[in-house]
Amino acid sequence: xxxxxxxxxxxQAIIKNYLETGEPVGSRTIxxxxxxxxxxxxxxxxxxDLEELGYIVQPHxxxxxxxxxxxxxxxxxxxxxxxxxxxxxxxxxxxxxxxxLDHMLKQAAKLMAVNTNYAxxxxxxxxxxxxxxxxxxxxxxxxxxxxxxxxxxNIIKNTVLDVAEKLDDETMLKLxxxxxxxxxxxxxxxxxxxxxxxxxxxxxxYGPIIAEVIDAVAETIKEDEDLEIYTSGANNIxxxxxxxxxxxxxxxxxxxxxxxxxTQLIDESDEEGSNEIKVYIGEESPIQTMKDCxxxxxxxxxxxxxxxxxxxxxxxxxDYDKVVGTIKxxxxxxxxxxxxxx
Amino acid sequence: xxxxxxxxxxxQAIIKNYLETGEPVGSRTIxxxxxxxxxxxxxxxxxxDLEELGYIVQPHxxxxxxxxxxxxxxxxxxxxxxxxxxxxxxxxxxxxxxxxLDHMLKQAAKLMAVNTNYAxxxxxxxxxxxxxxxxxxxxxxxxxxxxxxxxxxNIIKNTVLDVAEKLDDETMLKLxxxxxxxxxxxxxxxxxxxxxxxxxxxxxxYGPIIAEVIDAVAETIKEDEDLEIYTSGANNIxxxxxxxxxxxxxxxxxxxxxxxxxTQLIDESDEEGSNEIKVYIGEESPIQTMKDCxxxxxxxxxxxxxxxxxxxxxxxxxDYDKVVGTIKxxxxxxxxxxxxxx
DNA sequence: GTTAGCACTCTTTCGGGTTGAGTGCTAACA
DNA sequence: TGTTAGCACTCAACCCGAAAGAGTGCTAAC
Lengths: 342, 342
What we know:
The structure is a homodimer.
Chain A: H1 5-21, H2 27-33, H3 40-53, E1 56-57, E2 66-67, H4 69-85, H5 101-116, E3 119-123, E4 126-127, E5 132-141, E6 144-151, E7 155-162, H6 169-183, H7 193-203, H8 207-221, E8 229-232, H9 246-258, H10 263-272, E9 278-281, E10 293-301, E11 306-315, H11 320-341
Antiparallel strand pairs in A: 1-2, 3-8, 3-11, 4-11, 5-6, 6-7, 9-10, 10-11
Helix pairs in contact in A: 2-3, 4-11, 5-11, 6-7, 7-8
The first copy, chain A, binds a DNA duplex through residues 24, 26-28, 38-42, 44-45, 47-48, 58, 60-64.
């Protein structure tokens, strides 16, 4: 049996209707809903076929049909194709130049949540190219040195180092020159034992300080664990009865609060390194606790060598059309942000 | 009518039982629960009195009694008195020296949540004394200057400034000396128009840069808006049926996610500036959406001039005893942290 | 002052009847 | 051969009333 033209129309009508109402949809509804001018009986026959093909399921004998994961997948694929052709119209909301990156990302998450009525997430951009742009040691007081490390993309990291005795100006200058000479423009991979040994040797008695600085650099570069994730609209899940029973809601809220789980999405999206919008439907989700949800994600590029992720999480009967549109808009906002901002 | 010894015992028995079960408690239960050896009929008489006194209420005619806000208040006050005398035993969990403050605070929030099964929050310490400890401008590249501002308590803030043309070393040095000479040890209140004018005048053509630096300083000091709040265990509210109906849960989760609302608690706790543990019961809560909750908060002192807040939010039938104990433990951990850490 | 007893109230629970939506199947129709 | 009307059937949802059970207030007796 094949998915012919008419079946397609009916399937889409079923899904669309279900997305709006959240109720199983019956043959009579479709009979009136579409322009096919078919009686409910005919629709029923077609629906039996669609069920056999696996696109829809019946929650119980005398209920209407609801889309299966396969059905959603079909719908999403068809829709993506459509979107492909559209030219995205950028909105100006985000362009009110936000002073700070994290404010901006929070706002992006919130904007998406308000727009779509789903839960959303935005990760801060992480650098996947890691070159050191600038290093600076400054004497803060008698026994503390402030080390400032700037990575390509203006990620700035401060570390306070303890020192036994006060260092004089000349030494500070010497150390700064030493560090910048050897480390400027150097990537994480290039900092090897040889380079470290050279630095330490040249620093003489200040070798331990150099070692501490390098530790800080390493930490700055691989700051995987304290990756910032901004979320918004987690409470939207209460708008969808199928998600708001106690256990499910608790699990979801927990995922959103702990954020640890959400990193699985990032790993997944990084893996392919693709620039595409991804849609996970139900069981496809990489996160166990979100088997009843659908997740739409995309990566954004933030300047040279920086990449972040945005995602929307909602019920399977998600308004995919709108969600993908929203994701695209925000993505291109963030993509262009860096250029304009710099 | 007075609250005599026996009434007190009965009231406490009622509250204690209600805290455990979450169900209205009847006279017969109390009759068996306590050592008073009174029949249920007698208890009923006393309960009628307690109701008249306002300590307990009946949800409906033929139900048992539940504590009123006044009843909880009585219970809490009695308990605080008890705790007052106890010597707090510090736990070592937090003392595994955490590298970073925010990790530590997150862990503190989580620890409390796991311990108590309620929702918890911890704010990062904010400086209420604001003196500048150190200022540093560095040339990052041709057209950007990095300004690092360190506030008492080692709050560090970076800002990147745009400059039209490259500044030479001598100018940089001059600006740094100028800034540090005038601003070191200076508090926010002392940076007035006169001082700013002096600085600008001495900076000559670099006045605009000085202005930007001062803006950044101002922003660092009054960083009210991006106050970090760490929360944990928001999903615990699902453990208490009286909080987990859709509307309430949604509101609560929202408060925890937006965090904006939580700042009201901080304002409140700052107001008195006290060092006490505060308990808000039901309607006493400064947050509208938490009228069905109880909130326990405390401030902690983090080194000189820094203060943060910890709080636990749960149902009114909260295990106050445990919560206050937990808060005290964490509070003293954080209080002593700075000293040991420095 | 305490208690036993009883009538009363009110919520909760459970079963059963009803309703209504929706199906599958069959037979008739174009 | 595809479409449709009709009908019997299924099943969740809803309402209703009865019964159970928890708990109270009151009164009379101890």
